[in-house]
Amino acid sequence: MMLNVLERAVESGRDMGATYVEVRGEKSFLEFIQMDDYKVTALTQRIEQGVAIRVLADGAWGFVSTGNLDQLNKAVSDATALAKAAAKTRREPIELAEIKTCEDKVTLKVEKDPKHVPIEEKINYLTNMSKSIFEYDERISATTLKLETASGEKFLVTSEGTKIQSPIMLVWSMPWASGKDGSKLSAARHQEASTNKGWEYMESFATPEFMGETTAKRVKLQLEGVSPKVGSFPCVLGPRVVGTFAHEVLGHLAEADLNVHTPFNGKIGAVVASAGLSMVDDGTNFGQVGVGKYDDEGVPTSRVEIIKDSVLAELLTNREYAAKLGQRVTGNARAQSYLVPPAIRMRSTFIESGDFQEEEMFEGIDFGYFCVDFRGGSAQMNASFQVGIQEAYEIVKGEIGQPVADLSISGIGTDSLLKIDAISKKELHYGAGRCGKFGQWAYVSDGGTDIRFSKGGITFGGKS
Question: Which domains does the chain carry?
Answer without folding.
Answer: 2-224 (3.30.2290.10), 231-461 (no CATH)
